[in-house]
Predict the 3D structure of the following.
Amino acid sequence: MLPSVSLLDSFQLSQITTMLVIYLVAITAEAMSGALAAGRRNMDIFGVAVIAFVTALGGGTIRDMVLGHYPIGWTQHPEYVYLVISAGLLTTVVARHMHHLKQIFLLLDAMGLIAFSLIGCNVAMELGYPPVVVVMSGMLTGISGGILRDVLCNQVPVVFRRELYASVSLAVCLLFLILNKFGVGHDLSSVLCFAGGLGLRLAAIRFKWRLPVFSYQQRWEE
């Protein structure tokens, strides 16, 4: 019995470590993307810190409230708050030395989108929710921070107006469920979904892949 328990503990530790690494990558990337967005709106340092915080931790907060998953993660781990605010403020220092800020912003935002989508799926699965809720949880986590960032920066959210975005989150969530259903290891499925989702998002940006647009200009006549 001892070897099997040891293997189980090792598997759980590996799973926790993988999700923690993904989470840290996600909140750092999203905090930096939030800081860059604030910089484009000429916000002061306080504004940068607020946008970085909301972008990085807003999606997970909304997800936990919807799923009834309490206490909310960052309230129990204040080090995450320190990390995202530090990442946001650091961005203000290094941004002037960055070339092609737009490309960097899009890359960071894409990394955050994919990572948060995976995290959202994982949280809902651990809570025992059905597949459709798992997918919605992943999408909610993936896109909410970016929506909050863009709204606070007085922009139409990128999820509603540009290349494949929310649909990339949907694809990542579905692939994550499928791989888990077929017994693919958690670490391997996470890596495959992250790489595949990031590749799809960057390809959508490069080749300008878009969903059909609904445009209706006619006014109602009384």
User: Anything to note?
Assistant: Residues 2-207 form one domain. The helical segments are 2-40, 45-67, 73-76, 78-94, 101-126, 131-152, 166-181, 186-207. The mean pLDDT is 86.
